[in-house]
Amino acid sequence: GNSVTQMEGPVTLSEEAFLTINCTYTATGYPSLFWYVQYPGEGLQLLLKATKADDKGSNKGFEATYRKETTSFHLEKGSVQVSDSAVYFCALGGGADGLTFGKGTHLIIQP
Amino acid sequence: GAVVSQHPSWVICKSGTSVKIECRSLDFQATTMFWYRQFPKQSLMLMATSNEGSKATYEQGVEKDKFLINHASLTLSTLTVTSAHPEDSSFYICSAIKGRLDSPLHFGNGTRLTVT
Known about the structure:
The complex is a heterodimer.
Chain A: E1 3-6, E2 11-14, E3 19-21, E4 23-26, E5 32-38, E6 44-50, E7 56-59, E8 62-65, E9 75-77, E10 86-93, E11 99-101, E12 105-110
Parallel strand pairs in A: 2-12
Antiparallel strand pairs in A: 1-4, 3-9, 5-6, 5-10, 7-8, 8-9, 10-11, 10-12
Chain B: E1 4-7, E2 10-13, E3 19-25, E4 32-38, E5 44-51, E6 57-58, E7 67-73, E8 76-81, E9 90-97, E10 105-107, E11 111-115
Parallel strand pairs in B: 2-11
Antiparallel strand pairs in B: 1-3, 3-8, 4-5, 4-9, 5-6, 7-8, 9-10, 9-11
């Protein structure tokens, strides 16, 4: 079956630091890949997605590239802000089958 | 737009009682909704897929007689936890698809259920 593994947190960084949150997956077929973000007190929001190999999803300065050869979809941002503090979920799937989520990574950005 | 409202946001109930959680798509029609459950420090686990006008499809290991799902209209799906026990305490979250099946999911804010 499908599974998603992402680095466990919390991840604590200083403002303007470079961010990488690792995500690897196992799946049958060629699923779409997603990063969702949950800000404090809010619901899950789609951050970015990629639907096929070598696609790069980007939004709000975050990027992730669908790497089929390494079955990875690592989330990166060049310079994080305090407002990026949230829980980030890597997920795969979509459509009628729903999503398979990773455990979530709690990111804390300190001023 | 594409707002999903989930109610209540938190609920405390006594063991043996039933609790109903509502998931509404406020500004779109959702033919398909999903219910997830999240245990502390664990992934969101898909419980069931809810299609309007038909029976829900449950994931393996999810008791359909315990977690009753009804999708009576294109804007409302309900999850009823029957005869709740402390081990049912968890975070339940719904999501809905707006438009085509390959469209992004829109999530509710979740419901924290505590069974005492």
